[in-house]
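chain below, 288 aa
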Amino acid sequence: MAPLFEQMTIVGVGLIGGSLARAARRRGLVSRFVGAGRGARNLERALALGVVDRLETDHRAAVRDSDLVVVGTPVQAAVEVVRNILPAMRPGAILTDVGSVKGPFVRAVEEMDRGEVRFLGGHPIAGTEESGVEASFAELFEGRRTILTPTSRTIPGVVDALRAFWEGVGARVDVLSPEAHDRILADISHLPHLVAYALVDCALKGEGLPYAAGGFRDFTRIASSNPEMWREICLDNREALLAALRGFEESLAALRGAVEREDGQALERVFRRAKEGRDGWLQDMGWA
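prediction:
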């Protein structure tokens, strides 16, 4: 089968960008890979690992001959990256990203003069608490969802092209508006990270952490994620995250009230509903 793209540039070759290049190479979806970024050491490591075929610290030089450009930097940096590279991109090339917050980024890019560059926001819901190209692996997206976020200004055909690409690396593709994406991710990703960080921070103020075991380790695994990246995600998705926090605070307050009243039945109802819901979700995902 012929490759979907001749040359792909990844700006920000970290866990996600590196894994995407590895997966696309393994499955023959792209012929050549260019890694771009400001950190020469990370790029040289990506080249040494065979993740990319060429490296560039000049972003415009990196995208000039590519028919697919993936921006893998944090959202605030990604806006400036796109502003810089758009004049150098070839007509008809596809520009996408892998950021965890879509609304601010999509709005910013759609206000730019994109010429004939085809833009579509994207977000693979996959990752680990590790970061950097050395943590990347080709199987990261297999069976995981990737969300594409078109708007009324999206050029026809680009959704189908990126759907084929993401399905080619093993992902299950959904299409949502940027706003729906951000509401959902606030509930199932951004809020859990805040809770994990808060729980560990709370434990550090007491004396119990040396006695914590597997349950605490498993629950707080994502608190080992990159703090700078999650600072930006929380601020970029502020409104949706605040709504998610209000909902969580209401649930926590109800549990606190049940404990104060010694209402075991109320506690068990919540616990049972949560257990059955989680067990059903695990079964649907094939993880049970």
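The chain has two domains: 5-176, 180-285. The chain has a mean pLDDT of 95.
thats it, cya
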